[in-house]
């Protein structure tokens, strides 16, 4: 593997690790700051930020239901339905 390819792979992995500890808004700001202004690039970045926010919301709700002692597969459907009704 070439050094350039290894650097890109490392950057992608380290970027994903950072994303896990950032809010979607922080990630969005960082990406927009580092990306030249181009509507298609910025749209793709916004779309990814929305995916990150959705994941954070769903994980928080699932964690909350787990803490309250709820069990079962219904939780995933409930959380996804809530997200779709609230944010779409």
Describe this structure in words.
- The protein has 88 residues and is an all-alpha fold.
- The chain has one domain.
- It is built from 4 helices and no strands.
- It has helices at residues 3-20, 24-34, 39-67, 74-87.
- Helix 3 (39-67) crosses helix 4 (74-87).
- The radius of gyration is 17 Å and the shape is elongated.
- Mean pLDDT is 78; it is low at 5-14.
Summary tags:
mainly alpha; 82% helix; 88 residues
Question: What is the tally of helical segments?
Answer: 4
> What is the molecular shape?
elongated
Q: What oligomerization state is this entry in?
A: single chain
Radius of gyration: 17 Å
- Low-confidence runs of at least 5 consecutive residues: 5-14
User: What number of domains?
Assistant: 1
**Structural class of the secondary elements?**
mainly alpha
Mean pLDDT across the residues is: 78
Helix percentage range: over 70%
Largest sheet: none
* SSE pattern: HHHH
End-to-end Cα distance: 42 Å
Number of extended strands: 0
Q: What share of the residues does DSSP label as strand, in percent?
A: under 5%
């Amino acid at each position: 593997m070439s050094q350039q390819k290894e650097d890109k792979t490392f950057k992608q992995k380290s970027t994903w690790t950072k994303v896990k500890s950032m809010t979607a808004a922080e990630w969005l700001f960082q990406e927009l700051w580092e990306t030249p202004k181009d509507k298609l690039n910025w749209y793709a970045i916004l779309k990814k930020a929305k995916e990150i926010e959705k994941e954070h919301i769903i994980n928080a709700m699932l964690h909350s239901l787990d803490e309250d002692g709820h069990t079962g597969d219904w939780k995933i459907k409930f959380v996804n339905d809530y997200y779709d009704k609230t944010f779409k």
